[in-house]
Amino acid sequence: MSYINENFLDLQESYLFSTIAKKVEEFTKKHPEKKIIKLGIGDVTRPIVPTVVEAMKKAADEMGKKETFRGYGPEQGYDFLREKIVEFDYKKRGIDIQKDEIFVSDGAKCDTGNIGEIFSTNNTVAITDPVYPVYLDTNIMAGRKNIIYIPATSENKFVPDLPKEKVDMIYLCFPNNPTGTVLTKDQLKVWVDYARNNKSVILFDSAYEAFITEENVPHSIYEIEGAKEVAIEFRSFSKTAGFTGVRCAYTVVPKELKGYTKDGKEVELNKLWNRRQCTKFNGVPYLTQKAAEAMYTEKGMEEIKENIQYYLENARIIREGLQEAGFTVYGGVNAPYIWLKVPKGHTSWSFFDELLENAGVVGTPGVGFGEHGEGYFRLTAFGSRENTIEAIQRIILDSRK
Length: 401
Ligand code: MLT
Description:
Elements: H1 16-30, E1 37-38, H2 50-63, H3 79-90, E2 102-105, H4 108-114, E3 125-129, H5 133-142, E4 147-151, E5 169-173, H6 185-198, E6 201-205, E7 231-236, H7 238-241, E8 249-252, E9 258-260, E10 266-268, H8 269-280, H9 286-294, H10 298-324, E11 329-331, E12 337-341, H11 348-359, E13 361-362, E14 364-365, E15 376-380, H12 385-399
Parallel strand pairs: 1-13, 3-4, 3-5, 5-6, 6-7
Antiparallel strand pairs: 2-8, 7-8, 9-10, 11-12, 12-15, 14-15
Helix pairs in contact: 2-9, 3-9, 4-5, 10-12
The chain binds D-malate (MLT).
């Protein structure tokens, strides 16, 4: 008999974005004539920029020639990309990160989901609420029972309070998915200090750092003194370079960062993650890494910046349009997500249904990100300009009915 991992039975029936996709599919089948605008899942719509496409084509040509063909690459990523990451994402910000502290991967979703494997299932985990569902679901799958939810709502201005009890692992995502809000350097320092005092590890997801527009908002947790002793950072090219379909990201595990055995012996987490990756991962395709490398050229950076500006302008259109129509709106300044309060009398899901049925607009119900997301709704700025404008007009019209 093959026994199952019963922790899976503790999960919600379906992953949030799959549930939404199914609902939309059913609606479309019933109403094929209606044009649906999707501002639900944070999937990009701008094509990959020319400099990056060129690099991909060149790499494809290399793979087709005997002299330049490549088989397995290093599990941790090619040096040419890791060196660019060190130089542009860290050194330029005055942060000292070494090449062998960078692990190139096929996505921050996978990395934030897999990282739990190097930690004890007895750890107490703190998760902000609402939150990107991957953190919680993967901890449930692993069988971690001690999970503490830390609310981040309009009541605390989306600045989560420190846990009252001692926690071992802390998931933080800033700029935040789903609320689109950020922490200042001082606010993030409070968490780094907590982790240093309690020997906890912060799992810091900064997949949206490229969208930061305001000063004093940290792009990397390592901008905070002492963070290298306590934090793993996850970065992604998905939203920055339109790589949601290409798949490339990286995770930083500093060598200073230690975990502990039951009898208190220190162990380098970098070594454990390296061991895990070498066993379970064969690296990101050469083609993809060459494409990612091209992002760091002057031209690549310029082109990518334009795409980011485009999405940020969408965010402004959504934010200001909804505000003018009387909605209470958060986020969208340093992030591609806009978090709004649903109108009185609605739950997150009833507002989802209403918008889908009456306005033909798909968003994400806040409660899908956790209990404290109830009463909120998320829209993404990743649509086309035309669709974004139309969606907001439709939502406003619907709200006036
Ligand atoms: C989201 O919509 O929250 C993101 O697209 C999910 C992801 O990046 O996996």
